[in-house]
Specification:
The chain is 29% helix and 35% strand. The protein has helices spanning 3-16, 29-36, 40-52, 82-89, 107-113, 152-156, 159-165, 185-190, and strands at 56-59, 63-66, 72-75, 94-104, 120-130, 133-143, 171-182, 198-208, 213-222, 226-229. The chain has a six-stranded antiparallel beta sheet with strand order 4-5-6-9-8-7. Strands 1-2 form a two-stranded antiparallel ribbon. It has a two-stranded parallel sheet with strand order 3-10. A hairpin with a 4-residue loop joins β8 and β9. α1 packs across α3 (40-52). The chain starts with a helix and ends in an 8-residue tail after the last strand. Keywords: DNA-binding, Transcription, Transcription regulation.
């Protein structure tokens, strides 16, 4: 086995054993050279492998930061609520309602959704906290014509469960857009982003069985905490 692979496996084991806990720094390159008695090139190969495997993130001026691998897997094409993901993946989290208010469709929202300007909507912002840190910021707009009542208790739980079980809505599909964007002041204020300058933003237009769009959402995710997965099958065209 190559020496850099041996070093990678040793550091991997120490990270998994929490000898180097999440958000801590690995020893510097110079320290690792002394610890393992190898060249700088060998250490850099081992660190690059740790980076590729998602164990660390290198930051200029700081070193190698150990990432928290306790992450959610978000399906790209699926239409699954946050609570359903939380329960199936057994990651304890807390939902904090930041905003729940009645408002109206603006020109900007009209251009995204096609909803009539001035139509009443619910504006809901929720913070998702894992291990004491806010790592998701969810913003939802819901047509009051279709969702006439939305209480804090309903917003605190699974709104999809409320839609389907109490309002008898049949949610059919969503159009999603996933981008990596520079963080805004709102994101910095509401989320625990550490020194991240970018975040993943998922925008969704959610439709009922009769094709009516009734929800528009923007979900901001901290880069190191989540990964988006999908099963893909090759199809010749």
């Amino acid at each position: 086995m190559n020496k850099f692979n041996e070093i990678f496996l040793d550091l991997e084991q120490k990270i998994l054993a929490k000898e180097y806990p999440p958000h801590s720094l690995l020893p510097s390159e110079n320290q690792l050279i002394k610890i393992y008695g190898v060249s700088r090139e060998t250490i850099r190969k081992a660190l690059n492998l740790l980076t590729t495997e998602g164990y660390i993130q290198k930051k200029q001026g700081k070193g190698s930061i150990v990432l928290d691998r306790n992450r959610f897997d978000f399906p790209i094409s699926g239409l699954t609520s946050y609570k359903e993901l939380q329960e199936t993946q057994r990651i304890p989290s807390e939902t904090i309602i930041h905003t729940l208010e009645e408002t109206e469709v603006t020109k900007a929202l009209n251009e995204i959704t096609g909803w009539e300007i001035g139509a009443p909507v619910w504006h809901l912002i929720r913070e998702r906290k894992i291990n004491g840190e806010v790592v998701i910021l969810d913003t939802d707009y819901l047509l009051k014509e279709i969702v006439p009542i939305l209480t804090p208790a309903q917003a605190q739980g699974s709104i999809y469960e409320y839609f389907e079980n109490e309002l008898s809505l049949t949610i059919a599909y969503a159009q999603k857009e996933i981008t990596v964007e520079e963080v805004t002041e709102i994101m910095k204020t509401a989320m625990d982003l550490h020194d991240d300058t970018y975040a993943v933003v998922v925008r969704s237009l959610v439709h009922l069985e009769d094709t009516r769009c009734f929800e528009y959402s923007e979900s901001v995710h901290r880069l190191d905490k989540f990964r988006f997965v999908e099963f893909a099958r090759r199809r010749k065209v």
